[in-house]
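Minutes, project check-in
Item: structure for the 139-residue chain
Input as provided by the requester:
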Amino acid sequence: MTVKIYGSSCASTRKSRMWFNTHNIPYVYKDIMRNPLSIEEFQHILRLTEEGTKDIISTRSKAYKQLNINLETIPLKKLYSLIQEFPRLLRHPIIFDEKKLQIGFDEHNIRQFIPKEERQKFIIDNLFNLNNNPHIEGI
């Protein structure tokens, strides 16, 4: 399971990459300003979304406002070609693997990319630390 981070030089992308580096989780980074998404990458990301294009399109971006796009009616091929031309239409970063997707940096939700074995170890270690800490009430 390779984690991929697609983004730009924005702060959220930098935070995401730093988080993965700090947690020693390998990832593949792609600067979508220099290397736009392929149609296959775009389709894979769309399959992982809950609400389709609403999840990945930055409706607050200048490009979105200038293009006056209606996400309800625009054909996907047209949207894809606009994303090729205006990559800032996408929210950043897009973090995903084969089954999981996160748009933007969220320190709580990004933990879903920690391998299962390490998450379980982390939970167990913290549980034992709580039980050994007598000043915490209720334990």
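Outcome recorded: The chain is about 40% helix and 10% strand.
No further action items on this chain.
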